[in-house]
Backbone:
């Protein structure tokens, strides 16, 4: 192969490599975004689990907590030490310093005993109240703690939601264009190679025996510009079915020497000539030898 | 043609804004909770309970004095001032006083529990709003407002009459004691074992 062909192939290879690199960079960037997303989800899960664990702990050992609270409440309920009976010249004031005094020792002692019993009954009642209250207080406190933990779970979920809604799409958008430079490079290389193709595969390249040049194929497909101009004449308005049109096709196709495919100037025919020859064949009008050959050549070149 | 068409800049902006938003929420919720914790501490609740109990003391003491005076007057009228009935009545008065104190404590604790629930709900509301707005300033204002609302004095409704029965039955008891019939007739309560009891015995026993 000649150097031009090598260059052409090198351009194609570089284009393919650039395209692969573009894909690689995009995939890598997307994987990075995904990894960060996964990390954040795991973080959120860990936070939620920690909060949930705290809630479990809040309800754990409720009996111990109740006993503790019961003791606190008992302290709060504990009857204040009553004022001791006061004694003055008038006698002993039992219930209150302003109460009527008594001088009866029996009454004083009996009253004090009865008052102690009365306070003990009240204390017993208070103990029951403390037990009931402790149960409610412990579960209310656990409930409040659970509420705060639920709020923490909500906060973690809100963070994740904000990330997913506000950041993730932008990160993916960025990742999706991470390989854009390489993709553009690949496109440019493809374009250059496409432009360079005729040079690499056409007249610029040394043809071996029996090889067809690119310019020959192109001319066979699209026609020779000079002949085309000649055939269409002024505006290319000669009708296909007219005698002049039939003759024009024959004239165009027979203008050159058709036998030698390598002889560009002599053998190639214009599009109009071929079109007119095709029209004649379709309408049962006998073709000239030049026209038949021209059509055949066109078919071989893949034109029709 | 080359470059990312601004995608990187947009991603960076979105990331920074979101991180800033999350930072504001985290900081705001922490500060809100701290603010509530500072105000509604264990000391605060203990003081509130003490205030609540204290608020009722004048009424309780006034009623108690009154009740004891009435009881003593009734005992004197009945001639039972120095008697076993009087000692029982003193016992009842002491029990009634302790029960009144306990009732006030129980009400205070209930008020405390209600306040704790209200505070937790208020804190929850403030943080909920913060999560939606990410506005620390507004959250702090809401927190202050909620704290103001929840630090208003706990209502202390009147207790009503708490010493009502200290004089009850004294007149009948006196009558019984004077007639020597202030005892239960155990056998007389069994059909066929009448001891010729009186109306008083029937009244007291039956």
Residues:
């Amino acid at each position: 192969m000649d150097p031009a062909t090598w260059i052409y192939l090198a351009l194609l290879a570089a284009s393919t490599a650039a395209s692969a690199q573009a894909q690689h960079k995009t995939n890598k960037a997307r994987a990075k975004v995904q990894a960060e997303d996964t990390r954040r989800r795991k973080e959120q899960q860990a936070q939620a689990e920690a909060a949930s664990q705290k809630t479990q702990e809040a309800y754990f050992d409720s009996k111990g907590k109740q006993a503790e609270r019961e003791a606190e409440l008992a302290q709060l309920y504990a009857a204040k030490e009553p004022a001791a009976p006061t004694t003055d010249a008038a006698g002993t004031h039992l219930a209150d310093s302003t109460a009527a005094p008594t001088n009866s020792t029996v009454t004083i002692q009996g009253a004090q005993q009865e008052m102690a019993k009365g306070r003990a009954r009240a204390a017993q009642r208070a103990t029951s109240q403390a037990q009931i209250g402790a149960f409610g207080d412990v579960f209310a406190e656990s409930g409040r703690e659970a509420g705060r933990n639920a709020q923490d779970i909500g906060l973690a979920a809100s963070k994740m939601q904000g990330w997913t809604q506000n950041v993730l799409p932008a990160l993916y958008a960025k990742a999706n264009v991470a390989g854009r430079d390489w993709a553009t490079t690949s496109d440019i290389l493809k374009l250059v190679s496409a432009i360079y193709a005729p040079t690499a595969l056409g007249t610029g390249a040394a043809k071996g025996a029996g090889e067809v040049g690119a310019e020959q194929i192109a001319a066979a497909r699209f026609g020779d510009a000079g002949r085309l101009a000649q055939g269409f004449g002024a505006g290319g308005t000669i009708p296909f079915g007219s005698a002049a049109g039939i003759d024009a096709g024959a004239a165009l196709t027979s203008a050159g020497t058709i036998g030698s495919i390598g002889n560009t100037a002599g053998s190639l025919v214009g599009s109009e000539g071929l079109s007119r020859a095709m029209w004649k064949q379709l309408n049962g009008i006998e073709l000239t030898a030049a026209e038949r050959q021209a059509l055949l050549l066109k078919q071989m070149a893949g034109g029709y | 043609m080359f470059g990312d068409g601004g995608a990187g800049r947009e991603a960076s902006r979105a990331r920074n804004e979101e991180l800033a938003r999350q930072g504001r929420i985290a900081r705001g919720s922490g500060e809100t909770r701290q603010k509530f914790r500072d105000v509604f501490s264990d000391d605060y609740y203990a003081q509130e309970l003490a205030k609540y109990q204290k608020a009722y003391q004048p009424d309780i003491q006034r009623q108690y004095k009154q009740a004891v005076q009435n009881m003593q007057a009734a005992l004197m009228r009945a001639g039972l001032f120095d008697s076993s009935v009087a000692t029982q009545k003193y016992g009842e008065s002491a029990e009634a006083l302790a029960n009144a104190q306990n009732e006030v404590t129980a009400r205070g604790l209930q008020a405390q529990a209600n306040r704790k629930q209200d505070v937790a709900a208020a804190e929850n509301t403030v943080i909920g709003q913060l999560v939606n707005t990410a506005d620390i300033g507004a959250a702090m204002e809401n927190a202050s407002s909620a704290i103001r609302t929840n630090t208003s004095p706990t209502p202390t409704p009147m207790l009503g009459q708490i010493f009502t029965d200290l004089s009850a039955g004294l007149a009948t008891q006196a009558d019984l004691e004077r007639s020597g019939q202030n005892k239960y007739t155990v056998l007389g309560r069994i059909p066929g074992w009448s001891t010729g009891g009186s109306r008083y015995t029937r009244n007291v026993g039956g």
About this structure: The longest strand of chain A covers residues 86-88. Confidence is low (pLDDT under 50) at residues 231-235, 256-269 of chain A.
